Structures are given as structure tokens and as C-alpha cells.
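Supplementary Note 3. Input sequence used for the single-chain structure prediction.
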Amino acid sequence: MAKYDKADLERRMKGAVESLRSDLSGLRTGRANTALLDPIMVTVYGANTPLNQVASVSAPEPRMLSVQVWDKSNIGPVEKAIRSAGLGLNPINDGNTLRLPIPDLTEERRKELAKLASQYSEKAKIAIRNVRRDGMDALKADENKKEISEDERKRFETELQKLTDEQIKAADEVSAAKEKEILGK
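The predicted structure, written as C-alpha cells, is reproduced below.
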């Protein structure tokens, strides 16, 4: 049975681009948005957990986010995770609630966010390349088992490289659009 599955590899590559879109939606462009905190992971109970699984996030005002932590003992780790997320937010502890004022975007902050967007983009491209590597390894294994010929392997490798190039281009386009939005150009 051949291990190479082009449809699965394509699904995984597209998943990396969708993950990039999701991560970039969390980068703010001036207004409070609950998606801003989606990529944040909190270390509670000895495990990394998404913020939305230990607290509820709301936007009561256009320039304020509110994080209602469900277990009072988790306020410290949640606050630490938000501060260390690199989003430039400083939580204000208000009992069981953390208030996050959203500062105005300065030119320096816009550049930091654009840099963060390009880091997210690079992670997505690495994920796409890892999927390509998995596909190439599967092709070589299939060829070694004599399930496909060398010519078929080379043809599939060319197809896989073309798919990889398309998905990396899609990731670049998504990232460029977000950077343009952040920088206000």
C-alpha cells in the first residue's frame, strides 16, 4: 500500500495557511478584538492550555478587553501569559477579572506588529515545508518498496514542489495583506 497521499498533504498545507490566517486575525489594528488573545497559551495545572479554556474574553469597550478568569488561582499564570505574549498589552488585575487597555498604535508599535506578522508567516512556511518533507519521504519509501517507479517518484515530487510553492505564495500574500493593514499603507 502506497504511503504517498497527495490529498492529505494538500489538506495539511492548506491547514498551515488557515492557521496563519487565524494567528494574524489576532494581531490588532487599533480596536479591541477578542481574537487578539486567541493564540495565547497559559500554563495551568501543569499543561499548556489555550486562554479561552481557562477564562472568558470580552470587549466591553472599543479600547478595552476583559478577561474573566474562572479559577482565581489561575489569575497569575493568565496575567503572565498575556504579558509575555509579545502583544504589548499590560493587564490590570481587578479581582477575578483582568482588564486590558488597548493602547494607540504608534509607528514603533506598528513596526513591531508587522515584524510579529512576518514571524507568524515564517512559522507557517516552515510547517508547509515540513509537510513537503513528509511527502518526499513517503515517495522515497514507496519507491524503495517497489510500489512506484523512479519516474513516478520524480513526477510526484515535481507535483508536490508545485503545491508547496503555491501554498507558500498564499502564505506570503496573507502575510503581506496583514502587514499592509497594520502599517496603514
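Strands lie at 41-44, 47-50, 55-61, 64-69, 92-94, 97-101. The two ends are 52 Å apart (CA to CA).
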